[in-house]
Amino acid sequence: MSLNFGRQQLAIPGPSVIPDRVLSAMHRPSPDIYEGELVEISTRVFADLKAVARTKENCAVYISNGHGAWEAALRNTFAEGDEVLVLATGRFAAGWAELARSLGLKTEVIDFGMTADADPNRLEEILRADTGRRFKAVMVVQTDTASSVRNDIPALRKAIDDAGHDALFAVDCIASLGCEPFEMDRWGVDLMVTACQKGLMTPAGMSFVFFGDRCVEARKRARPGGYWDWVPRADPQVFYQYFGGTPPTHHLFGLHEALTMLVHEEGIEQAWRRHETLAQAYWAAIDAWGEGDAMTHNIRDRAKRSRAVSAVVTPAGCARRIRAWTKQEAGVTLGVALGFGQEGDLEYDRRFRIGHMGHQNLPMTFGVIGAIDAAMKALGIGHGRGALEAASAVLAAHGQGA
User: Fold this and answer.
1) pLDDT tens for residues 188-225?
2) Among residues 49, 358, 13, 16, which one has the least CA distance to residue 184?
3) In contact, 395 and 362? CB cutoff 8 Å
4) Which of 135, 249, 344, 374 has the smallest number of CB atoms closer than 10 Å to its CB?
């Protein structure tokens, strides 16, 4: 007998769970796109986005997923033939590099593999050797959604400064914004890209590029083309220029509600602490399961793990079986492996990912942990006991300190 009835639990690392309030805010007729409520809401949305990014710099909005933000950032910042240094710590910085090459940029990728973060010492060494200043930028992700590693953005900024290099510092925060501490201005990030479907709790379809004065200067050499040009989007003369045409009306209503929850009700720093606590609960459960060699963390060093997503390693073939059981029997959808080959490959079938980003609380956390625990019992997969107890201890300790 299947118990898969009731509300489904999405535990993939994006798109994330959409709050009912966001869905309700979007469930309405199309508005006037020239004046009134939509214009007023958009003004608040732009201000709140900067509050989440912790910046006073420019913000350009695109009707796209994160790949659109990648392209907009590249088109506005670089000229064909420019060379960039990409620090790859999983799948997504490598993907950004692939897009850069397709646009005529030269890329040098330093691949740190699927289980390690970017090494600031290695970055400093490379930049010190670049006496001809061929690298126009250093590109990296804060959280790689495939490996679940979290890169140390302030340490990488310091490496650039210590090398005395003038490369722009470009950071992908698609999986981390709203979940991990990020300080664009204080950390010296020149350019940041993100999207609405993860920590910002809104259906996929909007992306954002934040950029400072050094990128404005670099823009003078670039040829972004009409739609991608961030100048009218960041400093529009009329409302429609924010979006390069018709605004994404219902996404704006939803994003406004999500940012109200994140910025004005919970507060961004409290959201960071919530993600930290819930991530530690998952880690405690994985550690407990691992006592029977059933699974372990893809990122062994907890200081280098994402607070938004956890990549988990199991014995051969077990991840595929666990994912199938939780989805079919419990209504919990776990994330597939990325960056470890294709379905059917040994390393692919050993891994799954848990998304714990955005709209998450204790019952949702216990629901996912309980479903995985039940799956391993039902499938006869050997594992350590006490995962729910271990997660409970983490959450109880947080409550004592509240």
Assistant:
1) 999 999 999 999 999 999 999 999 999 999 999 999 98
2) 49
3) yes
4) 344
User: How far, in Å, CA of 74 to CA of 292, rounded?
Assistant: 47
- Band (336; pLDDT cuts 50, 70, 90): very high
Which fold would CATH assign to domain 9-16+267-400?
A: Aspartate Aminotransferase, domain 1 (3.90.1150)
Q: What is the pLDDT of residues 164-195, one digit of tens each?
A: 999 999 999 999 999 999 999 999 999 999 99
For the domain spanning 31-264, the CATH number is 3.40.640.10
Handedness of CA 287, 289, 290, 295 (dihedral sign): negative
Question: Which residues 6+ apart lie within 8 Å of 300 measured at CB?
Answer: 115
Q: Would strands 207-211 and 191-195 be described as parallel, antiparallel, or unpaired?
A: antiparallel
Both structure tokens of 18: 């959409």
Q: Are 127 and 135 in contact (CB under 8 A)?
A: yes
- CB count in 10 Å sphere of residue 339: 21
The alpha carbon dihedral of 185, 186, 188, 189 has a sign of negative
171, β-bridge pairs: 140, 192
d(C-alpha 24, C-alpha 1), whole Å: 34
Q: What is the three-class DSSP state of 172?
A: strand
Look up residue 139 and give its amino acid: M
Torsion of the alpha carbons at 151, 153, 158 and 161, rounded to the nearest 10: 110
What pLDDT was estimated at residue 401?
Answer: 53
Round to whole Å and give the CA distance between 167 and 217: 13
9-16+267-400 and 31-264: same fold?
Answer: no
**Domain locations along the chain:** 9-16+267-400, 31-264
Residue 320: per-residue pLDDT: 95
pLDDT digits (tens, 9 = 90+) for 20-75: 999 999 999 999 999 999 999 999 999 999 999 999 999 999 999 999 999 999 99
Phi-psi region of 386 (alpha: psi -120 to 50; beta: other; left: phi over 0): left
Q: What are the backbone angles phi and psi of residue 332, rounded to the nearest 5°?
A: -115, 120
Q: How far apart are CA 44 and CA 204, in angstroms?
A: 20
Q: How large is the average pLDDT for residues 102-121?
A: 98
